[in-house]
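Batch manifest, entry 17 of 40.
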Amino acid sequence: VIVGLYGEAGAGPFGFAVGSHGFVLRKGVYFPLDYPGALTSFPFGINDTGQIVGVYQDGAGTFHGYLASSRK
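Output type: structure tokens
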């Protein structure tokens, strides 16, 4: 299982423009992974139990950490 992000290259946070999205790649299939209502989502890692850690940006431009679960 792999997590990552995609979006337009630009001068935004972490080198990506507002509108970047997270994804999970499981068994060759991509699934979107966006925090509800977020402008941007940046999943950074996943552990052996399927917990995903990342950062999202809310509508006011503030960044928050999140913990999500991915079913195996």
